[in-house]
Amino acid sequence: MRQSELFARTRREAPKDEASRNAELLIQAGFVNKESSGVYSYLPLGLLVLRRIEAVVRQELTSLGAIEMLMPALQTKDNWQATGRWDTFTDVYKLKDSSGKDFILGPTHEEVITPLLKNFLSSYHDLPISVYQFQTKFRDEKRAKSGLLRGREFVMKDLYSFHRTPADLDQFYARVANSYRNVFEQLGLGRYTYLTLASGGAFAPHSEEFQVITPAGEDTIHVCDNCRLAINSEIVNEVSECSGCHTPVAKLRVERAIEVGNIFKLKTRFTEAFDLCYKSESGQLERPVMGCYGLGITRTLGVLAEVLSDDGGLVWPEAVTPFDLHLLILGPENADVRAAGDKLYSDLGAAGWRVLYDDRAVSAGEKFADADLIGLPRRLVMSAKTLTTGQVEVKQRSSREVQLMFPSELLGR
RNA sequence: CGGAGUGUAGUGUAACGGCUAACAUACCCGCUUUGGGAGCGGGCGAUUCCGGGUUCGAAUCCCGGCACUCCGACCA
User: Fold this and answer.
1) What digits encode the pLDDT tens for the residues A44-64?
2) Positions 349-368 in A, CB within 7 angstroms of strand B
3) Nucleic strand B near CB of residue A36 (< 7 Å)
4) Do both A244 and A361 map to the same domain?
5) Per-residue model confidence (pLDDT) at position A294
6) Is pLDDT above 80 for A202?
7) In this structure, are A186 and A148 located in the same domain?
8) Does some domain include residue A346?
9) pLDDT for A163
């Protein structure tokens, strides 16, 4: 993409009405635009990152055998009454249509997927079933905060699985946990992420969360570095030691963290509410057990900005960067430089690189500052100087070292 | 939902109760310049969040509302 055509430009200064680092950076770099508290637009660069986060998650879930679909945000009251959550699920937006019928803007989708499967699940041959979606969720947060970390409208991946036996659910659950680890590893968050034992809410004694350590987080967790496990402070009264090495909770390191994913055994909580069942080999009606697994996509975008950035701006990991290369031409009025830049841009694209091409007629300093702010992994610089040898300057975002390369070396990827 | 703070061009700031609301930046035009947010000249852009009140006079003081941020409560 030519930067001269990117309408969402960077700002010289951070917005004054955002205190969190992730929102400051993402707004200043032109990745998102704030619409209201906890509600953001995703601008071209931000959307590219979201799509790439989704792609990483999609690939992991596909390898589990899970299948993607899409369910509605607009949900009717009856299914929420069936589970009793019309009255008990507090942070939801309720609305009426013009005839007075009640709806919920979905904060989650158990109330859709479970009755939906009554149309398709009939035999033990159909199980297990695991489906997921990337969906905009709505929660009437009493206090949205920390930029993208706690919004009122946000994108989440939610996966639901249905099994014949608790043992089969347990096995799948463990595989999902492993997939989540792979996801956070690829996103460059592996060293900050801890599988954390947390409260189970209404359904189960405990659930497990994937928590990323950051001072911006709103949870407090007790981490065990030996086992890469943690315990959420909300349950330290119930748990006395690390489940891996039996280190007492009191001796674990205390950190602030943000929950980016959770995995949850729902058992028959919802399959009973909707009387979802299947026929076994003997023709008996049996109840499937269920699990649900969430992963915050827009929250992860915020976490990446919060955790991986530096003083100069954003620093994108290879797996989700909006572009692979940032190509800068200095002195764009110089016809030779521009022609060489245009050609390299075109050649790199043909070679499969995703390139952001700063062809704007602005000063060198401004281009460097913007390149740091936007945070692509590699910066290429072409100028009258480099043209004399026919080379380009290559610099990694995360280092200060600059090396000279011939375009041909870059093209063979 | 309780508490605190802040609302002034797109963005960031300034302005004692008193002149036509100032400066920077962004944006537009011209010239010049191109290795870490260059320079010169010209220009566009504001019902000072909204409503009421006090006053000869309100961006400024008072009341109410709204919005945003922060702390707390809440967060299957």
Assistant:
1) 999 999 999 999 999 999 999
2) 361-366, 368
3) yes
4) no
5) 97
6) no
7) yes
8) yes
9) 98
Number of domains in chain A: 2
Q: Mean pLDDT, to the nearest integer, of A92-112?
A: 95
Query: Same domain for A123 and A46?
Result: yes
Residues 47-76 on chain A lying near strand B, CB distance under 7 A: none
For residue range A139-196, list pLDDT tens digits in order: 999 999 999 999 999 999 999 999 999 999 999 999 999 999 999 999 999 999 999 9
Q: Of the residues A307, A335, A350, which one is the last residue of a structural domain?
A: A307
Per-residue CB contacts under 7 A with strand B, chain A residues 206-265: 207, 218, 262, 264
Distance CA(A393)–CA(A155), nearest Å, equals 38
This complex has an ipTM of: 0.95
pLDDT for res A205: 76
Q: Is the pLDDT of residue A413 over 70?
A: no
Residue–nucleotide distance: A16 CA to B11 C1' (Å): 9
CA of residue A57 relative to chain centroid, distance: 8
pLDDT interval class at A203 (50, 70, 90): low
Q: Pick out the nucleotide with least CA–C1' distance to A19.
A: B69
Q: What is the CATH number of the domain that holds A277?
A: 3.30.930.10
Tell me the CATH number at A382: 3.40.50.800
Q: Domain limits at A119?
A: 3-307
* pLDDT over 70 (residue A242): yes
Q: Calculate the angstrom distance between C1' of B52 and CA of A37.
A: 28
Is A354 within a domain? yes
Question: Do A30 and A155 belong together in one domain?
Answer: yes
A292 and A331 housed in the same domain: no
| Same domain flag for A150 and A184 | yes
Residues A224, A161 share a domain: yes
| A202 lies in some domain | yes
